Each structure stands twice: as structure tokens, then as C-alpha cells.
Task: structure prediction
Amino acid sequence: MLFGELAKYYDRLEEVSSRLKMIDILTETFKKAGHEEIGYIIYITQGVLAPPFEGIEFGVADKLVEEAIAIATSYTKDEVEKAYKKSGDLGIVAKDLKASTKLKSLRNSRYTVEEVYNKMIEIARTGGEGSKAHKIKLLADMFANSAPDEVKYLARYPLGELRMGVGDATILEALSLAYTGSRAFKGELERAYNLCSDLSYVGVTLAKEGKEAIIGFKVTLFKPVRPALAERLPTANEILEKMGGRAAVEQKYDGFRLQVHKDGDRIQLYSRRLENTTGMFPDILEAVKREIPAKRIIFEGEAIAYNEVTGELFPFQETIQRKRKHDIEKKAEELPLHLFAFDVMYYEGKDYLNEPYEKRRELLEHVLEKSSTIRPTTRIITSSPKEMEGFFEKSIENGLEGIVAKDLNSRYIAGARKFSWIKMKRSYKGELTDTLDLVVVGYFLGRGSRAEFEFGGLLCATYNDKRDMFETITKLGTGFTEAQMAELKQTLDRIKIKSKPARVDSIITPDFWVTPKYVVVVKADEITKSPTHTCGMEKLPDGTEAGYALRFPRLVGDEAIRKDKSPEDATTTREVIEMFKQQKKVRIDDS
Ligand code: ATP
Result:
């Protein structure tokens, strides 16, 4: 397929505002593409070169694209910059300047999709001295040899943002339709995606090997499994009820989630967001080498700084210092990390995901029999709410976050938040002190003293995983430092778009819409019913409609944007509804 053809499909995707139409267009695209091409098209549509764990980044900033546009169109850098300030979208700038350049301009496409992908890989791999100039040259060559409609996406792609609002769920549904003729296969495709975290790999497997290969999909070493997530409930009674009267209860450690893959001497560590973080944890790496006798294994746990002598667990803030890339070796000595392991997914060639929790735990304890830096989480098994409460209180006293209860019979449910794991934190036992992870879908300009920063606040949304849509829950105007405001403004400016993104459901119109991409952490006093927000919107008995909103929302945390979460990892609408119910229940219990 020529890239020009793909660009035409992208133009159509950009035009539509209904998700169903998006799926149709994408289905048509996949049907037109060759089997290998499917893989490239999926990555390009996701705005990436590879899945996160491969760590292949473009290493291209706005300025670099601006320079490439200037070279390819013979406009000056100032002219390009001015056009960018006006439209806020380098794709549009590239297209317009390419269309109006006096240089002999191409009208027809020349590159295939595969060629574009390979050139982008070349750009990403260009490193070392003089690499910036080389990247600019490669990009400018592509711009020069492509038609304006293509250049629009060629400029956007290396910035990691195609601005069409196509999410993974949309791609999965379109794959299902294109290759099986029905949406029904989406669940199987999702399962395969959850096991390997590489959507392109799933697409190519389906295209080349058919449905059977997807049905037989298994967990693979060095392709991280999308993590299982926990639901929340406020009381031990409710947790036990949900889990059939008996459950394992583990301490909840507030550190870094790590997934360990080991095949002989080859060991890799992956973060919650499936990035390869092996280089950040030399001490854990050594411990895996030293302490884990298994030849081939995938297991996961929470890494946290721990004082062996006093038994004291260090707060997250201290552990997070480890994130800073410098001084890693020194920090590893000062603040040695421990890995509290809580699950095992694969062992000596066998996939354990479908084994019950208790069997996986038995295996984990067996594997960790002789280890010390890596140890199983502390846990009890109980059918007594009182005992669970006691374990919870003790965990809090010891500086832990709370507990995670686990269904003894449940398999490992990759990539989903299910009641087979239920967390209980101190916060659920009173007012709404648990934070929400919300997706930024738009922002407002400042008024009064804020005008100076041209930033007045954010429009935030939850993720509705059933609809694959983002539904607004609050405007957020407080809790920002001036530095955070400036950072947010600059970051969001880069992804602002002219009209409401297709996957956003909103009654409110902000000053600027942005592509749903960034997650912020928000604290509020209460969840209330509101007619102005679309989160969980439903018809009330009196015929009016109401969704959920936040009372007194404020941004929390040192970092404005929560980098370890993608928009689809944000708090879901369903969770908000649950939190609303729990909040009501607590109030009734209190009274
Ligand atoms: P939170 O802010 O509560 O960590 P989250 O969205 O990051 O929320 P949740 O699914 O809500 O993740 O909570 C589970 C997280 O708790 C896991 O991702 C893991 O990092 C951490 N954790 C700590 N101890 C355990 C444990 N014993 N079992 C499972 N997860 C644990």
C-alpha cells in the first residue's frame, strides 16, 4: 500500500466523529493492506515505532520537525514557526507549506507504507554526534519526496501523535471485522494483546495465521503481560462476600511494579506501563541472577526500599528518587530495594496464567524458598472479616498502603480490573480520600492573575471501557503550581485540536480540545450527581439526565502529569460509580 493511500484513510478518520464510523474506515484500511503491512499500519496508527518494552523512540522534537519542513519547502524557520504558532499543529503546517512552496512539488505519493516505517526506524536509530542534523536531513528528504496530504502525517508521526483519536480498542474491533467478518472475535484478540502487549504482533498473527493462532496464543518470554489490576471495596465483609467467604489477603506495598522475565542469563524487568526498566534496577537484576534458581520464569512484584534491620518500609517519595536516572548505582547501595513478589505467570516452559491463584502462589513460594532480596508478599488466608480488618490495621501501622485480597480460585486476568483482586486502602473507610487518575481532554484559558500563563484549568475525563470513550467528570482549576501550569500549557499546546476528539463525550466545550493522551492525579471531597458531566450519564426517574462530577477537585502530586499511565489506564466510569456507591454506604454506616 502506498503511504498516500493510507493518508487518505487517515484524512477520513480525522473527519468523522462517531466511533462506529472510525471502526468502519479502519476495517476498510486493514482489508486493503497486505499481511505484513498490517503490522506497520498498526504501529503508525498508534503513533509508535514498536511496543513500549522495545524502547525504540523517535527522539524527534517539534524544533527538529520545523527545521525539516523549512528545508523541504524553502520557507524560513521563522515562517514555519509563525505558522506553527497559529495552527498549533505541525502536520497542518507541513501540509500547507508543502502545498504552497515554489519548489518543484510532488503531487503523487512515492513511498510505500513499509518504506515510510523503515525510514522512521532509521531516523529513530540515528544517534551520537551530529545525529540531529542527520535526522533533520532524513526527515526533510521524506517531506520533499511526498505530496502535501502525506506530509501532514509524516510530520505528525515522529512526534508520536497522529491526532485521529484512534485507541487500541478501536483497532482491535476493526481487526476482528476485517479478518473474521464480525465483531465477536474482538475478545479473543484482546486476550492475545493482553498476553503480549504488542498490538501489531497480534494483527500480523491474525492476518497470516488466522483465528486458530490467536485462540492458541500463549504468554511469551520478553513480551510483558499486561498487568492484572485490582477493584476496590471499603470493608472486609464486602470483600469476603464477593470472594465466596474465604480469601488470601496480601499486604499492599507502594513501590514500583516490576515484571521479571528470565531465560538463563538473559533477564529483563518491565514497568507497570510495560517499559523496559532493567537499567534502573541493577540491584534487583543482580538479585534475580543470584537468588532465582528457575531457568525460565516470568513473575511480578513490587519493588520498594526496605530497611532490613528495622523492618521499615520507605515511603514512595523516597523510593521514587530511584527514578532519577543519575546516580543509580550509588542509590542502589544507599537504599537497597527489595522485591515483594506476588504472582508468577510462566515457569519452565509452562504458561501458568490459567492456574488458580493458590497454585501460582505455591509455585512462587517454592521458587523463592532460598531468596532474601526477593521474597513473597506477606499474606494470610482467612474467612473472618475481623481477622482481615486486623491484618489491614497492622499493615497500615507498618507503613503500608493497605491490603490486596485475592480470590483463591481465580486465574491471572491480564490487562483487566476484576474482582479477583480487591484492594482496600485506609482512604475508602471515610470520605473520598482516594485519588482519581483522570484524562485531560481539554483546557481553559486563564482569567485574572492566571491570564499571564494563558492557562486556567483542565477539562478532565474518566475512561468508559465499555464504550471506549472518555467521559468528562470535572473542570480542574486548583492545586497547580506556577511551574506546573506552564508545563501543562506547553505540553497541551502540542496536542491541541480544532474540534472535539471522536472518543470524547462532553457537554462542556473548553477553550481548546486536546487529544486524550495525558493523565493527571486528582483529589476531591466527594463524588456528586451532575447534569453537566457525561461520566456515567443516565436518565433519572424524573426524566432528566445526570452524570457524576467531583466536588472541590484539586491536582495532587509533584508531577503534573502521571507518566506511568496511559489514558486507557485512567480511573474508569465504572469505578467512579462504585466509589459513589461506597461513599454513600459509608455515610449511611456512619450515621
Ligand atoms: P494504586 O494507585 O492503588 O496503586 P493502580 O491503578 O496503580 O492504583 P491498582 O490496580 O489500583 O493499581 O492497585 C494494584 C497495584 O498495587 C498494583 O499495580 C501493584 O503495583 C500494587 N501492589 C502492591 N502490593 C501488591 C500485592 N500484594 N498484590 C498486587 N498488587 C500489589
About this structure: The chain has three domains: 48-159, 229-424, 436-590. Confidence is low (pLDDT under 50) at residues 586-591. The radius of gyration is 25 Å. Residues 229-424 form a domain with the D-amino Acid Aminotransferase; Chain A, domain 1 fold (CATH 3.30.470.30).
